[in-house]
Specification:
The protein is of the alpha/beta class and about 425 residues long. The protein is built from 17 helices and 12 strands. The protein folds into 3 domains: about 45 residues, Transferase, Pyrimidine Nucleoside Phosphorylase, Chain C (Transferase, Pyrimidine Nucleoside Phosphorylase, Chain A, domain 3, Up-down Bundle), CATH 1.20.970.10; about 240 residues, Pyrimidine Nucleoside Phosphorylase, Chain A, domain 2 (3-Layer(aba) Sandwich); about 90 residues, Pyrimidine nucleoside phosphorylase-like, C-terminal domain (Aldehyde Oxidoreductase, domain 3). Strands 1-4-5-12 form a 4-stranded mixed sheet, with helices on both faces. A 3-stranded antiparallel sheet has the order 6-10-8.
Length: about 425
């Protein structure tokens, strides 16, 4: 097939067949499709879109561009979030799903834009191997029931090349291409079911509810079309989900959650809701009420914490991380109180601004090659609706030096609205099936 003819047809608004899309993806993988042609194809999709058949075909072809895992047991279940601030759900949910009977090979990503990434959090654990080879991945999942790792070069390699071109050709913000990118990596792990957490609010990529619904519906339709049972919850991201933002600080919240030392209510409710949804999708519970009780018991019994500890040890992390987190998690040399300037209640946050402040501290990337400082960020962030008086601590800054700490404190103050009342917004905004 002539690639330029396929690009021309998509440019002119025509639909491509699954075979034609497969030929384009093969060209991405073997290098016969040039970067200029790949960029032109991406722009044609941005301008003219894809129908459901094309979306499924693109996702399946990118999934099949590398190795697709198969498991001897099941059901194989995963969860994906579109990203937010203080979103530590994957760290607790993977082991909870595993002890409820699921096989959970969770392929996670790094921070994107202002949002944090699960892999960046895990890399705050000394020795933790986020990129095991496939035999080690199989051993860890077989032993513990779960493994949270990053995309390897063997899984969906077409996506890696396609994303690099999209990143420099202004073609990232396409529902069709976002969907294929997310799902090709997930489905390459051999999933039977996938629960999606589509964030919506001022700290999410989708700030508008209708946009979030559109993305959620597209993800669900394409996953189902590719043979993976899927549904989505649209969850609020108008405030940090956890009382921390920054890699080691968020990891510390997750460890406290697993051990029961401290369980933030918003984080608990989102985690349990997603877990219940996943167990029903996987056929491990007859309804969400029963599934919710199973997930809650996984945490309250300590079994999820035990499973997480086993996973960390199996991936070369410390064996007693849960018991002695302060012995292993890096700590910033400078901490600074962010004090309330006047009385009132926490009326809301500019959550995206908090994420950007973490990047300014060194806790995120401006360029793909930047090294992250896992120590920095914010802790002890007050929840929306909390009453404060002048001088109360709104949050604590963790920084590498005094100057960046001061700048971060000013940024947090600007992002925090103190007023006379707070808007009561539901945590779960919608369910898409």
């Amino acid at each position: 097939m002539l690639y330029q003819e396929l690009i021309r047809r998509k440019r002119d608004g025509q639909s491509l067949t699954p075979a034609e899309i497969g030929a384009l993806v093969l060209g991405m993988t073997d290098g016969t499709l040039g970067d200029a042609q790949l960029g032109a194809f991406a722009m044609a999709v941005v301008l003219n879109g894809m129908d459901l058949t094309e979306r499924v075909a693109l996702t399946e072809a990118m999934r099949d561009s590398g190795e697709v895992l198969h498991w001897d047991s099941g059901p194989v279940l995963d969860k994906h979030s579109t990203g937010g601030i203080g979103d530590t759900v994957s760290l607790m949910l993977a082991p909870a799903l595993a002890v409820c009977g699921a096989v959970v090979p969770m392929i996670s990503g790094r921070g994107l834009g202002h949002t944090g990434g699960t892999l960046d959090k895990l890399e705050a654990i000394p020795g933790y191997n986020t990129a095991p080879d496939l035999p080690l991945l199989r051993r860890v999942v077989g032993k513990t029931g779960c493994a949270i790792i990053g995309q390897t070069g063997q899984l969906a390699p077409a996506d890696k090349r396609f994303y690099a071109v999209r990143d420099i050709t202004a073609t990232v913000e396409s529902l069709d291409l976002i969907t294929a990118s997310i799902l090709s990596k997930k489905l390459a792990a051999g999933l039977d079911a996938l629960v999606l957490d589509v964030k919506c609010g001022n700290g999410a990529f989708m700030a508008d509810l209708e946009q979030a619904r559109a993305l959620a519906q597209t993800l669900v339709d394409v996953a189902n079309g590719a043979g993976c049972r899927a549904s989505a919850l649209i969850t609020d991201m108008n405030a940090p989900l956890a009382p921390a933002a920054g890699n080691a600080l968020e990891l510390s919240v997750a460890l406290d959650f697993l051990t029961g030392r401290a369980i933030p209510p918003r984080l608990w409710n989102v985690t349990c809701a997603l877990g219940a949804e996943g167990l029903v999708l996987a056929g491990l519970a007859p309804d969400t009420a029963r599934a919710r009780r199973m997930i809650e018991d996984a945490f309250q019994s300590g079994r999820a914490a035990e499973c997480f500890g086993q996973m960390v040890a199996a991936l070369d992390g410390p064996r007693n991380l849960l018991e002695r987190p302060t012995a292993y998690l890096p700590r910033a040399p400078v901490t600074l109180q962010v004090a309330a300037l006047h009385d009132g209640i926490i009326a809301g946050y500019d959550t995206r601004a908090i994420g950007l402040a973490v990047i300014e501290l060194g806790g995120g990337r401006r360029q793909p090659t930047d090294r992250i400082d896992p120590r920095v960020g914010f802790s002890d962030i007050l929840t929306v609706g909390a009453p404060v008086t002048r001088g109360d601590t709104l949050a604590r800054v963790h920084a590498a030096d005094d100057a960046t700490a001061q700048r971060a404190a000013h940024a947090f103050l600007a992002a925090c609205r103190i007023g006379g009342s707070a808007t009561d917004r539901p945590l779960i905004l919608d369910h898409i099936a």
